[in-house]
Amino acid sequence: MTIAIFKLYANKIGGTEKAVQSLVSILNQNRYANECYAAVDVKEVQNSDDKCITLYNYESFLKKNKLKFYINYYLFLFHNIQKKQLIISTDIATSSLLMLANLMRFTRLNIICWEHYPFEKNSRIWQKIFKYLIFLNKKSVIVCNSTEEKKKFSFHNKIEVIPNSIKRTLYNQLYIEKEKLDLIYIGRIVKDKGVERLIDAIISFPGDKKHTLHIVGGGDELEYLKKKYAQIKEIIFYGPIINIEKFLEKNDVFVSGSYFECFPVTILEAMSHGLPIISMDTSGGTRSVISDSGGGYVCENKIEFHEKLSIFENSTVRAEHGKAGRSYVNKNYSDSIIGSKWIRLIENELTMKSE
Which of 123, 110, 91 lies closest to 345, judged by CA? Predict the structure, then answer.
């Protein structure tokens, strides 16, 4: 018997994908047989999900209308939940379709709805569908990344808070006094991530000093932004890259223009490398992490962003915040701490199923 993980996308760069890889590693270490399924192979990276069973490649997915896609996805889920001990899903839509398949099969599968996206950002239709189906699937568990997100699921009584684990790094960040800083953003290049407003904040930095922004990631807005800022030498695009460690090691400050993050994985990864943070995301997840850690600043607007960037021109201040952030991540998000929470939940669910 097997634990199955269902997600929307395979071979994609993003926080959810990193979290799934980490969970698979935890399951393997504890000798739980597991399989991974995805609706669409996005192919942003080559075969990081080489063992993942997928429904569509990206080209065929683009040709489908939404109704046909969800019907076929439901049938895919309906077929693949057979002979599974436990189901883990990573988004509201997949969780809803799995709970429906569970009801239609008259099975008693335990489903863990592992949410990575702010609940209120889902469409109202999916919110209503999810609420209705989880009411019918009372044994299902919702797993949130933070206590802030947990509050949004008050309509259900089985909720766990398990953050994503962050790998500990042995690299010692060098906090060198520099005339111009190297800033790094790593993540999706899409509207929600606010990359354009981040670039605008940096190129409008007052005075003659021009700091360099290195942008790592892919997405819908990548080509548009590359074209728009092609003449500005301080803005450098690298495209989607799996091995981000070398970028975190070579830069001075991690910056983000994101509008909201359910759980700021990349910010925490940057903290684990000792980088201080400046974020324009004032939502609960990012604000609480930065506030609790002392690892940087959250800015309400462009003027505040400029003020905090000026503060980080001082290498001593960068070191103070960078070391605080690193210490916080190591104490709260290690593989062993997060792994033990997952194993405790999984063992509890498997015990309940056998009763």
Answer: 110
Q: Which domains does the chain have, with CATH numbers?
A: 2-165+334-354 (3.40.50.2000), 182-332 (3.40.50.2000)
Side chain identity at residue 296, one-letter code: G
Helix, strand counts (H, E) of the chain: 14, 13
The DSSP code sequence of 85-107 is: EEEEE-SHHHHHHHHHHHHHTT-
pLDDT digits (tens, 9 = 90+) for 118-175: 899 899 999 999 999 999 999 999 999 988 889 999 999 999 999 999 988 877 888 9
Q: 145: which DSSP letter? A: S
What is the Cα–Cα distance from 350 to 184, expressed in whole angstroms?
Answer: 43
Integer Cα distance of 263 and 286 in angstroms: 7
Query: Alpha-carbon distance 272 to 316, whole Å?
Result: 18
Both ends of the chain: CA-CA distance in Å? 16
CA separation for the pair 199, 157 (Å, rounded)? 42
User: Does the global pTM surpass 0.70?
Assistant: yes
Distance CA(112)–CA(269), nearest Å, equals 25
Which residues have C-beta within 8 Å of that of residue 14, sequence separation ≥ 6? 187, 188
Crossing angle, helix 335-354 and helix 15-29, to 10 degrees? 70
Token output for 18? 């990193």
Neighbours of 226 (CB within 10 A): 15
Q: In the numeric block, which tokens belong to residue 229?
A: 């800022």
